[in-house]
Structures are given as structure tokens and as C-alpha cells.
Automatic annotation (TrEMBL):
Residue range(s) of DNA binding per entry: 27-46
UniProt keyword Disulfide bond, yes or no: no
Keywords: DNA-binding
GO BP: negative regulation of DNA-templated transcription
Lineage: Bacteria, Bacillati, Bacillota, Clostridia, Eubacteriales
Domain HTH tetR-type: 4-64
PROSITE patterns: HTH_TETR_1 (PS01081), HTH_TETR_2 (PS50977)
Coiled coil spans: none
Protein name: Transcriptional regulator, TetR family
A single GO molecular function term of this UniProt record: DNA binding
């Protein structure tokens, strides 16, 4: 088995354990049992259980962004792109992953781990900043701080994900998402 596929096997097995028992409720021994990889083999690929989670997070976010980029068209406006991003989030949202991310953020104490997770989110969300910054520069959006607008948009999405964790009603989520996106876009459009 090649290195990346064994790393992915460990991560996939850990994800199953995490979604079943939570991050804090899962031991490395359970990941060993689920993956069939020895404890030494796990520690060969990952420094810690947190490191496994960071790998899962980076992979998950990367896959989400790749699926979003694949639906973009060259002539999409910034409004179209932000709408497609939201629609892609709705189509791919997984309450188990959202709950797991929330649990990890809430229980994480090590600032280096927290910074690494924030770095994964920021690195992978840079394209949203580019869309918004370009739209501001082109006069399509009002002359606002592009960093603040990007963080507001991401906060909107995170809030919707939080609602999804509690309601699990897709129609409720879609209605709220459409309404929130409409309010957001109207607030930043240059009319």
C-alpha cells in the first residue's frame, strides 16, 4: 500500500470513529482497530489524533472547493459565483462533519492546533476573498473592506451550517440560505 493511500485509510477509519463517537470520545486504539493499521503505523503517518483530524479537515475542505470550482463557468459574475458557492454548500452539507468540526473547535486547547485549523480554512477560502476583492475593484460591489466582506460571507455560511446541525430540515435550511444570500448580496452590490 502506498504512503498516501495508507494515510487516507487511517483518516477514513478515523472519520468513521469520530462521527460515531465524537472526536474526544475516540481513542487512537479505536482508530487502530477500525483501520487495521498498527499504532506505530498510525504514528508513522500522523503525530497525534489532532493531526489526523487536521488532515481530514484539509482533505474535506479541499474536496468541497474542488467540487465548487468544477461548476463555475468562465462568464459567471461574482454574484453568480457566491450563489453557486452557497448552493454547493447546501448540496454537499453533511451534519456529521459539521458537528465534528464544531466539537473539535470547542474542545481544542492547544493554540498551535487551533492555528493550524484556522490556517487550513483561510488557505482554502482565499478564492472567496479573490472573488469579492475583484468585484469591489471592478465596481460590481460597494467599496467595502474585502477581508471583512469575505469573513461576513463565511460567517453566514457557518451560521447556516450550525442551523443544519440542530434542525436537519433541508427545506428550512434552503429557505434560510436563499434569504440570507439575498440580503447579503443586496447589501454589498454597487447599485
Amino acid at each position: 500500500m502506498i504512503k498516501e493511500s495508507k494515510k487516507d485509510l487511517i483518516a477514513d477509519s478515523a472519520l468513521i470513529c469520530f462521527t460515531k463517537s465524537g472526536f474526544s470520545g475516540t481513542s487512537v486504539d479505536e482508530i487502530v482497530k477500525a483501520s487495521g493499521v498498527s499504532k506505530g503505523g498510525i504514528y508513522w503517518h500522523f503525530k497525534s489524533k489532532e493531526d489526523i483530524f487536521l488532515y481530514i479537515a484539509e482533505r474535506h475542505i479541499g474536496e468541497h472547493i474542488s467540487s465548487f470550482i468544477s461548476i463555475l463557468k468562465e462568464d459567471d459574475s461574482p454574484k453568480d459565483m457566491l450563489t453557486k458557492y452557497m448552493e454547493n454548500c447546501l448540496a454537499t452539507i453533511d451534519p456529521n462533519i459539521s458537528t465534528l468540526f464544531a466539537e473539535f473547535f470547542l474542545q481544542a486547547k492547544d493554540q498551535e492546533i487551533i492555528d493550524n485549523l484556522k490556517g487550513i480554512f483561510h488557505k482554502n477560502m482565499g478564492f472567496l476573498y479573490d472573488i469579492i476583492r475583484d468585484a469591489i475593484d471592478n465596481g460590481e460591489f460597494r467599496p467595502l473592506d474585502p477581508i471583512a466582506v469575505t469573513h461576513t460571507y463565511i460567517g453566514l455560511i457557518n451560521g447556516l451550517c450550525h442551523q443544519w446541525m440542530h434542525h436537519k430540515d433541508k427545506q428550512f435550511l434552503e429557505l434560510n440560505a436563499r434569504t440570507a444570500l439575498d440580503i447579503f448580496i443586496k447589501g454589498i452590490e454597487n447599485r
